[in-house]
Amino acid sequence: MNWLALITALIIMLAGLAGTVIPLLPGAPLIILGIVVYGLIDGFEIFSTGFWIGQAVLLILVFAVDYLAGAVGAKYYGGTKASVWGSIIGGLVGLLTLGPLGVILGPFLGAVTGELIARQPFKQAVKSGIGTLIGFAGGAVVKMIIEMAMIAWFLLVIF
Questions:
Q1: pTM exceeding the 0.85 threshold for the entire prediction
Q2: Most CB atoms closer than 10 Å: which of 14, 51, 57, 83?
Q3: Could you report the per-residue pLDDT of 55-85, keeping only the tens digit for each?
Q4: Residue 56, Cβ neighbours under 10 Å: how many?
Q5: Can you give the residue ranges of every domain in the chain?
Q6: What's the pLDDT tens digit per position in 1-58?
Q7: What is the DSSP letter of 100?
Q8: What are the distances in angstroms from CA 51 to CA 45, 55, 86, 97, 157?
Q9: CA 125, CA 80: separation in Å to the nearest integer?
């Protein structure tokens, strides 16, 4: 085993874990990058096709949690379909217009806007928006668990 490869990969992966709570860093993609860097330094032979497919599935799951957690939170807090769709659209628009901060603000503002468009009272609209923030926090926990599983799987393969 190449210790330089392992240490480099782990530093990149730890940055990925930090990215779960710091919107400036792309969490799961950095974990995949850490695996690729390890492979570039020490060789890819150790990684099976099943490993790569599994890691890709986990990566997609992380992205799904990212986009759906706010919507689930909005719905749980009494939001209508308008707030759920608003939080999803708001997340995408927020990311594109506000960058990393938009990942948090976009779903909140989208849920509130969706509820107001659906003619819900302002108090309910804000409650749905808060639900998206709570969903985002819960999603971060789920993403962290998935990302730690990605790293654990990597470590099991190389050791």
A1: no
A2: 83
A3: 999 999 999 998 788 788 888 888 899 998 9
A4: 11
A5: 3-158
A6: 799 999 999 999 999 999 988 877 889 999 999 999 999 999 999 999 999 999 999 9
A7: G
A8: 11, 6, 36, 35, 9
A9: 9
